[in-house]
Specification:
CATH architecture: Alpha-Beta Complex
CATH class: Alpha Beta
Order of helices and strands: HHHEHEHHEEHHEEEEEE
Strand content: 15-25%
Number of helices: 8
Oligomer: single chain
CATH topology: Phosphoenolpyruvate Carboxykinase, domain 3
Shape: globular
Distance between the termini: 22 Å
Length: 266
């Protein structure tokens, strides 16, 4: 599964992209303008033209968006394989995937994730920990956050905004950058199993509610394993489920989690 994930990361970026911005000149009337007219036009252009490309980029990239990955797209094929291989019964997948959404982040969110990675790497190096991956890439892992979604309708556009429905756990979680009241108290629990549910799932009785899983990149750093019982300063806490082969990881810092895809399934 790691091979598929590396291929997906190389070919699909989680960042938002700014559309080409072109400032078109006014149509030429064929008549020469005098100096007074030219000065007025210059003032208008100054008012209408953005101060810098950076401001345009910042304005475009302040919100997180979804971009649906259609059936037949190589990225969707790989995402579905990752989901199925991480399911409870990979040899006989019982889940039907309804929709795959790519999470397109603002530059600020991506920068926050990379800054946290550098912080973990520096800390691991300074403390001379025996976790080589922590000093290389912050011990980046692929994990799943199982939850629910209420805004996944049959109608969809190429790029869509996150909804404001408080009962939609996917949009609420991503918009808050995993900083919900529950995660602030209990940490962010992620799993190696794509079908596991997080600890704060609400009632399934709502008609518009769908099962969903957020595919995340996480900076695990130094992991304290409850099974080993060796206590040391750590960045996350790992444990194994007694009733299944899945492993869970509780991440303390929301900056360590970067949602990349949302898979809606039945």
């Amino acid at each position: 599964m790691q091979t598929f994930w590396m291929s997906l990361k190389e070919n699909v970026n989680c960042a938002s992209r700014m559309s080409n911005v072109v400032i078109l000149p006014e149509k030429c009337s064929g008549k020469k303008k005098n100096n007074s007219q030219k000065e007025n036009l210059d003032k208008q252009l100054i008012r209408r033209t953005p101060k810098s490309v950076g401001e345009v980029i910042k304005g475009f990239s302040t919100r997180t968006r979804y971009s649906e990955i259609k059936i037949g797209d190589p990225a969707r094929n790989i995402t579905e394989i990752i989901f199925q291989k991480a399911s409870t019964n990979p040899s006989k997948p019982s889940r039907k995937i309804k929709k795959v959404l790519k999470v397109k982040h603002s530059f600020e969110i991506l920068e926050r994730f990379e800054k946290y990675r550098e912080k973990v790497k520096e800390s691991a190096y300074m403390q001379q920990k025996t976790h080589p991956r922590s000093t290389v890439d912050g011990n980046e892992l692929l994990r799943f956050y199982g939850t629910t979604m209420t805004c996944c309708s049959e109608e969809s556009t190429e790029v869509s905004e996150l909804c404001r429905d408080p009962t939609c756990q996917v949009c609420t979680t991503i918009q808050s950058n995993f900083e919900t009241e529950y995660t602030k108290k209990n940490g962010i629990r992620l799993s190696t199993n794509s079908e596991d549910l997080s600890d704060n799932i609400i009632d399934f009785s709502m008609e518009r509610m769908d099962r969903a899983v957020i595919v995340c990149r996480i900076i695990a750093g130094t992991v304290f394993n409850r099974v080993d019982g060796v206590k040391e300063e750590c960045d996350s806490i790992g444990s194994e489920a007694h009733f299944s082969k899945s492993e869970s990881l509780v991440v303390r810092n929301p900056s360590a989690v970067l949602p990349c895809f949302v898979i809606v399934f039945t």
